[in-house]
Amino acid sequence: MHKFALIGAAGYVAPRHMKAIKDTNNEIVAALDKFDSVGIIDSYFPKAAFFTEFERFDRHIEKIKGNGTPLDYVSICSPNYLHDAHIRFGLRHQADVICEKPIVLNPWNIDSLEKIEKETGKDIYNILQLRLHPSVIELKNKIDNGPKDKIYDIDLSYLTSRGNWYYASWKGDIEKSGGIATNIGVHFFDMLSWIFGDVQKSEVHIHNHDRAAGYLELKRARVRWFLSINYNTIPEKIKTAGARTYRSLTIEGEEFEFSGGFTELHTKSYKKILSGEGFRIGEVRRAIETVYNIRQEHPIGLKGNYHPLAKTPLEPHPFTK
Known about the structure:
By secondary structure, the chain is α/β, with parallel strands linked by helices. 34% of the residues lie in helices and 22% in strands.
């Protein structure tokens, strides 16, 4: 049985990690979050030590190490801008690290973390559950076995409604989350580059507080993309059905269906990691470079090959109304 520490225990995605650790017959011995709304942990590891202060958490990890029961893994579900520091913490404690996406905000963070990996002899793994989705794997196999010179035309739409709380949280701060393209889009960009190859060209048409849109040319695909957290950008037929999320990926005009099959992907990710087959930090470099470049690019407006949903009327920041 492996011993885990969990950083970011009150976060939205943390219960998926708790379940994955439980499902793989391992144990969380210590958890950290500055917020104490973590009652969910009782459903999985009621005996886990919990801390709201990093210093006391750090001291506890040192204590159990001194008692001969060191950590095997540190799982990280903290805000994006803290991932780099928390990964370093895990490596310094001689633990392997499992981190949510985006693993870091800047490409050069990957360089320094890979250096610390070598120094400590420990490994950093990223959760990239879309790469384990059966439909995505099937698509990759289809593209790999298809015509080698074909360039595919793709439209990506991901609209996931968020209320005003989003803007008051770290997620609404581009310095902390990386903005829309990074916070909700990085795993889609990773999936597309994994299947269709490296980015050759990038244009950003819109990038503001509640949406981002642009165009990517990959080695084997032309991608128009649109991401939003604004409910009003969702197509009317989806709203009428009572849904607040819309996910669509069309390839050559045909809808690629992958709306289901997500429930066990974190557990599957942990099983891969524990068997030595997880996705290492270097594998996400392309996606981190893509979202970093999107963040740096100046939006050109509705010019060129833009996504149809980019024409959705812009709205002011809710805190400036």
